[in-house]
Amino acid sequence: MIALNQLRHERLMELRVSGLCCGVYAKFMRPGSHFCPNSKSGSSISSSSVEVKPKIPLYLRPPSFSASLSELKKWHRWAKNLASSVGSSFVRLDNGPDSTLLRRELNWLLQDLLELQHHPVILSLLESDSNENVDTSVALKAPLEELYCAWRQRIEERRPFQYVVGCQHWRDLVLSVQEGVLIPRPETEMIIDIVERVALKTTPKLVHGLWADLGTGSGAIAIATARALATHAHAHAHGRVIATDLSPVAVAVAGFNVQRYGLQDMVEVRKGSWFEPLKDIQGKLAGVVSNPPYIPSGDIPGLQAEVGQHEPKLALDGGITGTTDLLHLIDGAASMLKPGGFFAFETNGDKQCEFLLNYIENDKSGSFCNVHPVSDFDGIQRFVLGFRQRMV
């Protein structure tokens, strides 16, 4: 049996390799059979919704359904054939997934669908040509009709795999995600490394302070930051994190993830735009972190289909140059951080990063110190970080 942590690591590494890249979108042709409702709810979710109930990820659902092994094998063959039919066509279209990755995703789907202790046996039977045990009943966490629908959406509509299974593996977390919530990226994991290496180790007092994760989405950065504060505080009282987001869907999902990890006492989720929900703590923040929208508006139509056609535009579009929200965050950090407070923001990389560094030097002179960029896994200058200037 493969350990669950190993499965999570393998899934994370594959998603890191595949990436979510820019390109040209074209819709894949739709073959017939199996009615499936439109899945593109991510673009139509209203930000004015009063209350949103987060969806339960597939791996957390109880095995309330069943199908015969014969029926499951039929679905599995169909799903593999559909994945294989893609070949490298998505790669040529917009650097999307190829058949190899899609078939691997199919295995991940099965791992979430089946009870963990049954994975090896069922997976072996599905790959076998034997007709033995075909009448055996297999416990599932979703009905076959939903599986046909979900996999058709994955291939034909390029619905992100993370939305199909309802979760994303990120650092050592498994986070709930759904339409209307940005899928946290592997490169964003580095913000937590930066917080630990640059902020908490060099300025230990920040461990006990109040932090903010702005535009929290799934709550990934807020949850990981809170865990880092607890780890570095040792036996002493640790700090807290306030996570803000304008989207009610994100607020609901982030709250769900916070509860899943038992961090209600350390992470508070507030609805609102950027610093707006934090007016009561102006000038008191020990740290501000964010992965804001930074893609130039004109680049949105050319994004990989999984991104541009499904993920929330609110979390992607950074205005004409992509720096609208980043500039707002830098301006806000100058007044919201206490002296010696730390900030780290993710950018679109290189030129955008250089632009922000120049802005801080020329337009925010005297507000910050030790400002510098940090590169991501691919050597691209991705992050801008620094400290609020101390009072003289």
Task: Describe the fold and architecture.
With 392 residues, the protein is of the alpha/beta class. 38% of the residues lie in helices and 16% in strands. Strands 7-6-5-8-9-11-10 form a 7-stranded mixed β-sheet, sandwiched between helices. A hairpin with a 5-residue loop joins strand 10 and strand 11 (381-388). Helix 2 (69-84) runs antiparallel to helix 4 and helix 8 (190-200) packs parallel to helix 9.
Straight-line N-to-C gap = 60 Å
Largest sheet, in brief, is: 7 strands, mixed
Give the strand content: 15-25%
Q: Over all CA atoms, what is the radius of gyration?
A: 22 Å
Mean pLDDT: 88
Order of helices and strands: HEHHHHEHHEEHEHEHEEHHEHEE
Tell the overall outline.
elongated
Number of helices: 13
Helix content: 25-40%
Low-confidence stretches: 1-9, 13-35, 37-49
Secondary-structure content class: alpha/beta
User: What order do the strands of the largest sheet run in, or round the barrel if closed?
Assistant: 7-6-5-8-9-11-10
Number of strands: 11
Keywords: Methyltransferase, S-adenosyl-L-methionine, Transferase
GO molecular function: nucleic acid binding; protein methyltransferase activity; S-adenosylmethionine-dependent methyltransferase activity
InterPro entries: DNA_methylase_N6_adenine_CS (IPR002052), HemK-like (IPR004556), RF_glutamine_MTase_cyano (IPR052663), SAM-dependent_MTases_sf (IPR029063), Small_mtfrase_dom (IPR007848)
Organism: Theobroma cacao
